Fold these 3 entries.
Entry 1:
Amino acid sequence: MNKPRQIVITSDVFPDIEVEREVLASLDVVVVKRPCWHEDEIIAVGKEASALVVGDEPISARVLAHLPRCLVIVKPAVGVDNIDIAAATEQGICVANVPDYGADEVATHAMALLLNAIRYVDAIAADVRRGVWRPMPPYPIQRSAGRTLGIVGFGRIGRSVARKASGFGWRVLVFDPYIEPEENGVEAVDLDTILTQSDFITLHTPLTDETRGLIDATALGKMKSSAFLVNTARGGIVDSTALYTAVEEGQIAGAALDVVDAEPPPPDHPLYRSERILVTAHVAWYSQQAFEDLRMKTVQEVARVLRGHLPHNLLNPAVDSRGLTAASHTFSQK
């Protein structure tokens, strides 16, 4: 009698495994949750797994070489820079993410940070809590209308930001070398134009070799001294040290970040030293509805592969999956 296939959840993002068990109930599987943070832990729990649901723990070539039964790795997130996709492809393991669960949430959070940069709501509210009531606050509040917003990265989230910003009377500039903007009211420009002409810049690119450190000292030096930077994408896109220096020396007006290069950042992180840098706790993706969508779509990708089909959000289409027939490859890609 064949043993049930094992589905291992190494991510700690989900509170239990009831949804996963329900979706996979018609398949002969056992679902186990084993939160991992290091390579050796993943190797130990994954050696018998047919599928892994992973978080930000490193899924390196070394780890992948020790997953002889694994058919698919699904990350319940958009960014997959912790997974060696090339090595997974060589091992015949499908890699999938969930790119469409929280685009509206991230765009809304970016807009909230942008509007706070204009109105200084957090600082004024903090003053009131301290008993300071100033109807004419000392912050450099400017009129919103007539400003220029620069959007770096124009995928689902960048487009959503553009739509949300359309009613504010802003000029909207877009930089994305891989996507031709089709929305009305946006201007496709190069990165230098974004940097030099924008009053506000919001980042919505994945973290890749091309985008890592994209906003460095040189880029920050091209921005207006009155400009404000928002990052709800990935922390590694921005050089934190250069950002702190640029804000403290007045090269730019300030920044708001939902992501940083090391999460959670230590209490003495330089970004916390500046009153003009606002940091939130990588919460932009979250709403109750987004969390439910994320969970369901993640396990549905696992179920799809176990039934012999490619994931809907396959990230390595060149994979010759060890668990799928040629017929199912063809069927799934139509």
Entry 2:
Amino acid sequence: MGDFFTTIMMPFELLVAWIMYGFHQLWSAVGIDPASGVNWALSIVGLVLVMRSAMIPLFVKQIKAQRKLMLLQPQLSKIQAKYKGKSDPESRQAMTQETMELYRTEGTNPLASCMPILVQSPFFFGLFQVLNGLKRIAEGTRDPLGPISQAVARQAESATLFGAQLSDTFMNAHTTNTRILTILLILWMSGTTFIMQRQMMAKNTSAASMENNPMMNMQKTMLYVIPVIFAISGINFPVGVLIYWFTTNLWTIGQQTYILRNMPSPGSAAEKAYHERLARKGKPIPGASTTTTAVGSDVVDGGASGRQSGQRQQPKGKSRAKKQGPKTDGGTPPAPPTT
């Protein structure tokens, strides 16, 4: 099983190694000491920038899938209400079939919202393997990995960032500086994970999707569970992996902030704030209805101004107009003048 996993991960390890090495050469060319931990830490940041930039199309698909799921929430609630209290296998299967049929008809899939995480995972483990393998490559007990030769591995392994090597973990730390750095990175990683999840849940979720929704209840629970899991498991993550995860969380928060400001989900608090900003700037609000009246070839706005609205006025002949006489707003002729 171990050999199979190693074989599967090898292409990702090679890609991670080449990207890191390319950025290491770039930072060295601009004057950063190639043997410093800063250079190699910035190479990991560069890896994040490349990977997350390549994943932008997947993120757009994720946002679209989340929007469709929110719009489908009333129909999903009807299906759940239809089978409420029915726990027999036939009812469970029927509810599942109706739900999947709804997803198929509307062209969406709940798994689409998880694609960025699923795609990113192999590169996360690839970086983990590269950092863990530096010492063995430097010692000659493992073959070089792409551009990571024995000399490069020795340089990367000896590089320190605030006294900690990039392959150090909290559990194998030998210095106080390493323990302090890893604890700070673990706290930053867990804290940004919490902020990232809460940002989308609090601002980009409609009130309708929050009511009686088991999925949203589960997400509320995971809002607190996932950061705790990261905090506990983070003591076994190398410093380089912690830098990677913290940086990718910052990218996600920035990316989500842009989405919330410019493409919020319908009915969410972010959409309300977006409409308020447009109103302050005097710009039209998407989805707002306006009534227009066509008069000849001209189009007259009858929405906000209320100047004209309704049907097109039909022309009248002079004799007909004289016979009917002028009318008031209520449609009754005015009283004749008194003499």
Entry 3:
Amino acid sequence: MSHSTCRALLVVSLLALCTACGHSRKRSGVHGGPMGHLELLTYGRELYDLRCLPCHGPHGKGDGPAAAALQPKPRNYADKAWQDSVTDQRISQAIVDGGKGVGKSQLMPPQSDLRDDPEAVKAIVTMVRSFRPK
């Protein structure tokens, strides 16, 4: 196994451990109802910063601190063509099942602890969609 492959696997393993510790908190919107867009975005930012930012970067451009060690590089969420081509369902599946679960890089760890927390997944999807160029 090459040095760069070992390094990438180490980075991904550490990220998987970190994200496993970053459990979601069940949330509800104002008065216990569903969250509104701003609440989803705020919650999504919290989850994204903890679980996604190390690889995808603070602005979703795939340039997080761990990205240098990864091949292939993480998805650039600020790519308009990609944003136009993907459904929320597909993004949700990639979050929960990881890259391997959607036929992409196995280096993207699954967030399987979110499988039973659709509000947290929706919040992360909302955050990913916020990177779409206007």
